[in-house]
Design the sequence.
């Protein structure tokens, strides 16, 4: 049974193309299965087009969940990226 | 990541479209992947150029292979002609994908360290992504 972790963060900016790209690039470096959930929709964090398709905006709560050998590190890394990247937009 | 990323070649009938898509994909993926635009004819008109495509493939190849995305059907003819001369198959994959979405998805997977097959698959899966 692989470890699974999840954490929620409130966006401080919209999840535009560049932050979505940063999220997906980082997610792709982990072995775990990683999902991002916003407003009841869950997508694969490694798919940049799916993450962009969420259309997540400032003030929305995003849940990052991961299951696998590096799940804890993955959740921590992606939450940090969401916190930083959505400050600048783009 | 110590190994080289898969390179991306964007073949468009329009030089501006190829450059713009390369710029967008580079910005979204963080700028670590070699993306080469091959748009327009040798005279700068709308169309595709075997010489430009050939140069672009060589330039994009960092040792991990190259995924080539054509914008419209007839660009495929140019790419195929180049690949026949290039020694084909070895390390170069032609992706059947939507141009902008495929470029962005492929480049992000390349930036994350994906191999040639994974990068080409990401481009091709882009046709299923919903925008709305």
Sequence:
């Amino acid at each position: 049974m692989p470890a699974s972790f999840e954490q929620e963060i409130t966006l401080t900016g919209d999840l535009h193309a560049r932050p979505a790209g940063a999220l997906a690039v980082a997610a792709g470096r982990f072995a775990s299965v990683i999902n991002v959930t916003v407003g009841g929709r869950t997508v694969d964090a490694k798919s940049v087009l799916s993450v962009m398709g969420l259309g997540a905006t400032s003030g929305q709560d995003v849940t990052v969940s991961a299951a696998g050998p590096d799940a804890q590190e993955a959740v921590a890394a992606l939450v940090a990226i969401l916190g930083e990247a959505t400050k600048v937009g783009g | 990541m110590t190994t080289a990323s898969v390179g991306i070649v964007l073949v468009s009938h329009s030089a501006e479209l190829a450059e713009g898509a390369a710029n967008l994909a580079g910005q979204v993926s963080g700028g670590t992947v070699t993306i080469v635009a091959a748009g327009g004819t040798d005279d700068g008109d709308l169309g595709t150029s075997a010489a430009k495509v050939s140069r672009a493939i060589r330039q994009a190849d960092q040792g991990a292979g190259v995924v080539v995305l054509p914008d419209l059907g007839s660009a495929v003819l140019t790419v195929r002609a180049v690949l026949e001369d290039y020694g084909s198959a070895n390390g170069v994959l032609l992706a059947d994908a939507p141009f902008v979405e495929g470029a962005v998805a492929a480049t992000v997977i390349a930036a994350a360290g994906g191999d040639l097959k994974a990068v080409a698959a990401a481009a091709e899966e882009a046709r299923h992504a919903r925008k709305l």
The radius of gyration of chain A is 12 Å. The beta strands of chain A are 4-10, 33-38, 41-44, 61-67.
